[in-house]
What we know:
Order of helices and strands: EEEEEEEEEEEEEHEEEEEEEEEEEEEHH
Distance between the termini: 19 Å
Strand content: 35-45%
Amino acid sequence: xxxxxxxxxxxxxxxxxxxxxxxxxxxxxxxxxxxxxxxxxxxxxxxxxxxxxxxxxxxxxxxxxxxxxxxxxxxxxxxxxxxxxxxxxxxxxxxxxxxxxxxxxxxxxxxxxxxxxxxxxxxxxxxxxxxxxxxxxxxxxxxxxxxxxxxxxxxxxxxxxxxxxxxxxxxxxxxxxxxxxxxxxxxxxxxxxxxxxxxxxxxxxxxxxxxxxxxxxxxxxxxxxxxxxxxxxxxxxxxxxxxxxxxxxxxxxxxxxxxxxxxxxxxxxxxxxxxxxxxxxxxxxxxxxxxxxxxxxxxxxxxxxxxxxxxxxxxxxxxxxxxxxxxxxxxxxxxxxx
Length: 338
């Protein structure tokens, strides 16, 4: 699998202060590129022309193919004061600014997306000047399990498909959050006071007593009632209330396209509008809503799409396209349940 990397636009040599490690002659359309803060050199382009339109200086896209249910990350460097948007898989999303000349875009790929190659269009506007180019997103199927869950009769009413649809629609209002300030660092912090096994993985197809079909949109951690739930990154509480299916629930907005959710809590200690810092306890694990035992259901949204949060716990989450934070504690794949 190759990473998509392009640099050295034909309109001007790339200055040494850019992502590029040296001046790039006009005739070199596929230069070697290094992100000093990522500590990893990048390979040559993957199905992409090296000629980039002004004012784009360099582009990097995380490893291809991208397993559905995972998050791809696009990173750009732009010469001039500009804005950009990307279009992919039916979504049109803003680029999030990183400093004076860099942008990032985390792109969640649904676990139900059909495998295949899809266009990723990048539109850049600098004053009256408009530019556009297209990359390719290669989506691989991945491998997911299947679960049959038989809740007790006391929870039968919570298996109503209409109730699920209503609650999904209610939560959809927060899926459109696109706060511009990035508050997260990679890898994310473990969302519990102790590292525990995964009891139900993201993406597993599941059936509740044969009544409700679908897939598991989060990761269930085998925690016990009363264990502290911790913020994986700085953020703002945007939802904190009791829901019928998800029980006591919280949503945290971490900015730059990342929102995390916490279901089935026994207690919530913060209100909407309050801020949290990485590692701060803000709730307790419980067994509320449609739940057959104490656990934490951890939901991760990348630009509104539920994705596998375990990827965000890894130090190499985006293959070096985005640097890890100082002092971050990565979680091994074995512990994370992969």
